[in-house]
Write a structure and sequence with these properties.
The protein has 125 residues and is mostly helical. The protein contains 6 helices and no strands.
Length: 125
């Protein structure tokens, strides 16, 4: 099974074999990440939730969704690599931070942002 490290290494080799690192500044990578995220978003444009649910079984839609998800992941790996960020560690830390911001008793079933929850949820006593 592939890991983030093995995928990153394959991606870096792919990039380096083509001499593309020269174009991969942090700014350019972040811009590209957002462009790919917009392409992912575009798959949902003008569709209802019901239409999207039914499209999950459509092979062509699933392939497009898969490709755009992969593009987002690959650019995110490049951003993290350039910035020296361990994505798995960052994700674990963010989940722990969100657990503090969104206590179950205050956020269960709610879409409110942590700043709209009780003051105690933000660690301010």
């Amino acid at each position: 099974m592939a890991t983030l490290d093995t995928i990153r290494d394959l991606l870096l080799r792919f990039r380096d074999d083509r001499n593309w690192k020269q174009f991969h500044t942090l700014k350019n990578l972040i811009i590209s990440l957002n462009l790919e995220a917009a392409e992912l978003l575009e798959l949902t444009q003008w569709k209802t939730d019901a239409e999207l649910a039914s499209l999950k079984g459509d092979d062509q839609f699933r392939q497009a969704l898969k490709d755009e998800c992969a593009d987002v992941l690959l650019y995110l790996l490049l951003v993290a690599d350039d910035a020296g960020i361990d994505l798995l560690q960052a994700a674990q830390e963010k989940i722990a931070k969100n657990a503090q911001r969104y206590p179950v008793d205050q956020s269960y079933g709610s879409a409110r942002k942590y700043t709209a929850l009780k003051t105690k949820a933000r660690g301010e006593d």
